[in-house]
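Work Package 4 report. The design task specified in the project plan requires that, given a folded chain encoded as structure tokens, an amino acid be chosen for each position. We show below one input record used in the internal validation round.
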């Protein structure tokens, strides 16, 4: 499943280098920044792959291992929401996209008995593979549902490869639609 997403960092390396030269502080592409998530989008034929990388703070409001019932409830709720990518990422209905596979990874999702030692900055990684019956009808992704579900996320840095080439941009709650 990850073959396309694994190629993405290399395909977008020129964008990353350009971004790093414009931004000399600690918030380069590799930085963990609260309020900011990263989304890689690859459309190849009928296959749409989405790779989300977000600090746990954006999704549950904390990054420590869930020890209280309230924290465990927040983690479980966030996981259930992340398990429904078609509700988080608004895709053109006419494209007929259906979910084929998903992987969710985070120290927060591990059993609370295994305290997340060494994860002071816990991230949540989500990978989705969808099949679209009519990929030519897929013209945009609306991230408004994601921002509404996880309001602590203020910006999503999107890197996209599609039939019209590659591009990188920042989506915000006010500018949540990303065109292919």
């Amino acid at each position: 499943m990850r073959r396309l997403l694994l190629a993405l960092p290399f395909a977008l390396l020129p964008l990353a280098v350009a971004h790093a030269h414009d931004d000399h502080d600690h918030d380069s592409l590799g930085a963990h920044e609260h309020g900011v998530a990263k989304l890689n989008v690859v459309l190849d034929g009928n296959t749409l792959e989405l790779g989300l990388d977000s600090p746990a703070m954006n999704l549950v409001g904390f990054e420590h291992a869930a020890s209280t019932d309230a924290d465990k409830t927040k983690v479980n709720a966030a996981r259930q929401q992340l398990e429904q990518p078609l509700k988080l990422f608004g895709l053109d209905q006419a494209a007929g996209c259906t979910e084929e596979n998903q992987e969710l990874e985070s120290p927060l999702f591990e059993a609370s008995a295994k305290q997340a030692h060494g994860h002071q900055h816990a991230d949540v990684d989500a990978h989705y593979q969808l099949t679209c019956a009519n990929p030519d009808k897929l013209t945009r992704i609306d991230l408004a549902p994601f921002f509404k579900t996880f309001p602590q996320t203020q910006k999503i840095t999107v890197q996209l490869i599609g039939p019209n080439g590659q591009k990188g941009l920042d989506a915000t709650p006010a500018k949540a639609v990303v065109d292919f």
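The beta strands are 36-44, 47-55, 90-91, 97-105, 123-132, 140-142, 155-162, 165-171, 177-179. Validation will be extended to a larger panel in the next phase.
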